[in-house]
Amino acid sequence: MCEESELLDEIINELERQNAINMLPNPEKEIYEYCLFVDFNMAIEAKHPGEYVLMDSIATPIERTANKYGMTPDEVIEILQSANYMIDKMLCLDA
User: What superkingdom heads the lineage (predicted)?
Assistant: First the structure.
């Protein structure tokens, strides 16, 4: 029973996090979602962890996001930090 409760808590937490992401303003929302998308795609395409590391050494998700949006990696990092701060604030995790 405890495992079911923990699973339900995880599902609720993930739904709340997704709602917070959906409430982000642009460019935070777009950059945040694209960077996650790139990271997940790299993980899915990699046949083993070493292949992911190789892909990451060629260009990280942040670098790939920067290239797509014509930004520097530092600009993307700044936007991601801002997005994470806003998400934490919406979820009351900024304590």
Answer: Bacteria
